[in-house]
Amino acid sequence: MAGAADQAAAGAPRRAPAPARPKRKRKLFQLYSPIQPRTYLIIAILSFAALLGGWWLAAELDLAKDIFLPTPADVWRSAVDAAKDGTLWDDARASFVRITIGFSISTVLALPIGILIGTYRAAEAVIEPSVDFIRYMPAVAFVPLTIVWVGVDEPQKWLIIFIGTFFQQVLLVQDNVKRVPREYVDIGHTLGMKDRTVLRRVVLPAAAPAIWDTLRITLGWAWTWLVVAELVAASDGLGHSIVVAQRFFQTETIFLGIIVIGLLGLIMDQAMKLAGKRLFRWAE
Amino acid sequence: MDAAKLSVRDLRKVFGADGSGELVALDGVDFEIAEKEFVTVIGTSGCGKSTLLSIIAGLEEETGGVVVVDGEHVVGPGRDRGVVFQTYTLFPWLTAQKNVEFALQGSSSERADVAREHLELVGLDRFRDSYPSQLSGGMRQRVAIARALSYKPEVLLMDEPFGALDAQTRQLMQELLTKIWEEHRLTVMFVTHDIDEAVFLSDRVLVMTASPGRIKEDLPIGIERPRTFEVFSTPEFFEYKAHLLKSVREESLRSAEAMEALA
Ligand SMILES: Nc1ncnc2c1ncn2[C@@H]1O[C@H](COP(=O)(O)OP(=O)(O)OP(=O)(O)O)[C@@H](O)[C@H]1O
Ligand SMILES: [Mg+2]
Question: Is the pTM of this model over 0.90?
């Protein structure tokens, strides 16, 4: 190239000043484009604050009567009272224990059954049709039946959580193990492993992150069933506190109950998410 | 050629023989591979190469015919036949080291040593503790090869192991595999539809017909060993390549005609 040769002959090449780097447009609104974690956090906080602010404003402006819409301050006061006299902790503990027991029973039974019918077609043929059928029966409709069966004590709450959770879990876990790439199983077999070893050393670890997600999602659903059970027949628990408050038109306590249930659910969900990230670092 | 290491006799495979529309994938496949021979099977897409390899691996059941390895009939998968697939080759929840150890038996220190040795063989000792997601596609296939070699199967079956790699990486992998093979001399059946790859790697190339698959041609490759990448530009290489291109092309055209006839 003549130009290049000239420049070389003239000694140190004179470079044209680099053109100003054109600014990239901020990509806040572009399909799937990532944003800064800080931006994300700010937006999230603003959005949440707007929700609270909207509520507060609506209550202050008396858009609705106080017994329909209490102010955030009312709810806060009711929270402080309930915390002081201990009912908040007692109710939260009662609900927490129920969901832990009900969800654990369901999970302990659903895991092996789901894994079994996800890996053996014969087992699938035995179990899937009935599970599929029962799954579409609304768990709420079982409430009266469960009371007839086991009374109104703790086992009834567990049973409702179980009915609402178990059948979904079985089918989701089945799907989780079905999705394990066949190549992984083949590798196990070509290494001379027996089915049981392949199941333990290949299928389970491969499906584990998805199964963990299944548990996380169904735990969220289990909260709904817990509250359903407590609304109908219970002498404590967050659901029960809502029913009592309704009787006395203590709307702020109803709000409190709903918010605490939401918070507890959120905390458990985030805890599981975090634990999952730790357990399955490789799955990214 | 005395007693063959791997012998495939009149192999047939029909999919959907249970009524759901029959598809004859293999129709009388017949060939032998001698001990320490590197044989490649090529053919157009869908001609039944993977099916053939799966049956030899014991993962798929034949409809007719037999597969014999070391004088024993194949009735299922076993440690005498190692397999390397194109995808999903490594367990993502295990490190490179643990992926190789997975294939091994014996005490844990023995397994660790053997695994380390084989990762070194494929030049990945530095990546021992990396998870597959942290490795490039080529590195993953190298770990998979290390794993398949580590437990010393009698026959190594490879189904387009480099099929998902870019051209440069692919060629490096071919050179690596050739180097390892020339040092260790294993019995290999390699499946690909890349003709350059087939000529460069093999002692013999088997060409399959379009579906239903049969062995149409058995071409010994006389290129001297050791082979380096310079082989790719020799006239000898081009001659083999031209010949095989023509042979495979005939089959591609046949299957294209068949498809048109269907339409
Ligand atoms: N499990 C199966 N059920 C039904 N048909 C199948 C099955 N597996 C493969 N086939 C059919 O058998 C034929 C051969 O398939 P195969 O995968 O062996 O081809 P291939 O030569 O490996 O092709 P490619 O080069 O694309 O990998 C194809 O027509 C395919 O559709
Ligand atoms: Mg294939």
Answer: no
